[in-house]
């Protein structure tokens, strides 16, 4: 029975630890899946993929069907055509001008195919592909930026919640010292002013605790806003209470911001190619089947206006056409010059991104190294302050020191606990900063376990 109980207890402990270890990771996954801005970026990437498919479908021939019925005057030609997909065919002239109305009808199938575009279609597809890559890199960059924002907000909440717990511990210490001072005063070992001073300090500590709770609630609201989920419980990840040993490495040259900038440069260059190929000829193959109905007689006039609703003539045709934009060179050259400027601008932005990332990586590495050194000293700082406070408390109980020395020791302990929390938070933020400039959140999450 004892063995079963111990096994069950260990299982529950392991389950609790697993849940605790995954707290921040789980929240980060929920935030990445639910945040509206990231959903919008995913849809923009999907739209860019559809544009590539659309440009590729340009190779397929088009087939347009049309039918029209008109009621118009019987004049020079046999009825009237509406603008559309019907190839016009004129009829014989009438002997005289007349304003009599009659019916006419027409139907057609028009096939159009551009099998050879001399590179125009390929350049459009290539531009769309670079646009798709740009959208994907921008989505990755947006996800990275959001994950960094969410993690930073959670670290702020964790620090504020830890400060609240530290304020509560400090309040409890004042309450304990207040009860102790009452006992000592009642026994005549301490003056009555000690209890009054401890009461004032105890009330002040309660106010500080309430202020800390308010700050933690404010940071939690920011975390919940970035989470994109209102029902999920937000807890404190216990892994943030420990220091980590990190081996900094030179980050790879694949930051999504740099990749996005490179894709934009390639897309602008592809658009220039597309403009240059606009001046090339275009081969168009077409075929048509055409049916015409008219009530107009060859010699003029008509018998029944509704005779035009039935088809009376049929025509078929195939052909090809080569079109060359002869006078478009001047206008196109201006657009090419404009595109050259856009390419140069994109290259300049890319260079600026590289320089900015190099600077950020240098700063992030130094910041992380110093933050790790400070975090390693924080536990020793708290232990020394706690040891000093306990010694002062024992001396105060023995009547060897006055109240001010004990209060100062307690204030030093509270300061040490607060500074320790700040140092730990700065360590995790430095680790997050290094992951952000490296473009890889896995670097942060791996050290979280």
UniProtKB/TrEMBL annotation:
Gene Ontology cellular component list: cell outer membrane; efflux pump complex
Keyword Membrane belongs to the record: yes
One Pfam family hit: OEP
Signal peptide bounds: 1-20
Keyword Signal: yes
Molecular function terms, GO-annotated: efflux transmembrane transporter activity; porin activity
Localization annotation: Cell outer membrane
This protein's UniProt keywords: Cell outer membrane, Membrane, Signal, Transmembrane, Transmembrane beta strand, Transport
Record-stated family: Belongs to the outer membrane factor (OMF) (TC 1.B.17) family.
Protein name: Outer membrane efflux protein
């Amino acid at each position: 029975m004892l063995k079963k109980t111990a096994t069950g207890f260990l299982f529950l402990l392991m389950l609790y630890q697993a849940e605790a270890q995954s707290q921040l990771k789980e929240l980060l996954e929920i935030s990445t899946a639910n945040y509206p801005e990231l959903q919008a970026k995913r849809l923009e990437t999907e739209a860019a993929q559809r544009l590539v498919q659309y440009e590729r479908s340009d190779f397929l021939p088009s087939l347009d069907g049309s039918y029209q019925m008109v009621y118009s005057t019987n004049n020079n030609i046999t009825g009237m055509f509406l603008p559309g997909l019907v190839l016009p065919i004129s009829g014989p002239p009438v002997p005289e001008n007349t304003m009599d109305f009659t019916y006419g009808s027409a139907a057609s199938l028009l096939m159009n195919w551009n099998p050879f575009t001399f590179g125009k279609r390929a350049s459009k597809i290539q531009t769309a592909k670079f646009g798709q890559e740009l959208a994907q890199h921008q989505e990755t960059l947006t996800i990275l930026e959001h994950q960094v924002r969410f993690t930073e907000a959670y670290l702020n909440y964790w620090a504020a919640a830890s400060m609240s717990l530290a304020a509560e511990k400090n309040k409890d210490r004042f309450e304990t010292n207040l009860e102790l001072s009452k006992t000592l005063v009642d026994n005549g070992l301490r003056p009555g002013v000690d209890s009054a001073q401890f009461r004032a300090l105890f009330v002040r500590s309660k106010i500080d605790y309430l202020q800390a709770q308010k700050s933690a609630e404010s940071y939690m609201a920011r975390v919940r806003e970035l989470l994109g989920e209102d029902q999920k419980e937000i807890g404190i990840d216990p892994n943030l209470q420990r220091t980590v040993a990190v081996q900094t490495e030179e980050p790879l040259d694949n930051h999504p911001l740099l990749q996005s900038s490179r894709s934009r440069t390639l897309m602008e260059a592809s658009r220039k190619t597309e403009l240059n190929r606009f001046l090339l000829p275009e081969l168009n193959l077409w075929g048509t089947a055409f049916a015409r109905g008219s009530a107009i007689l060859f010699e003029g006039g008509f018998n029944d206006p509704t005779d035009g609703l039935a088809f009376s003539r049929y025509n078929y045709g195939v052909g090809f056409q080569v079109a060359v934009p002869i006078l478009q060179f001047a206008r196109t050259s201006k657009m090419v010059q404009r595109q050259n400027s856009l390419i140069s601008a994109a290259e300049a932005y890319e260079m600026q991104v590289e320089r900015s990332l190099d600077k950020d990586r240098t700063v992030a590495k130094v910041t992380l190294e110093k933050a790790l050194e400070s975090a390693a000293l924080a536990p020793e700082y708290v232990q020394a302050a706690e040891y000093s406070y306990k010694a002062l408390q024992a001396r105060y109980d023995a009547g060897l020191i006055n109240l001010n020395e004990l209060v100062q020791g307690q204030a030093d302990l509270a300061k040490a606990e607060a500074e320790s929390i700040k140092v730990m938070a700065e360590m995790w933020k430095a680790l997050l900063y290094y992951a952000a400039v490296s473009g890889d959140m896995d670097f942060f999450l791996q050290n979280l376990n």
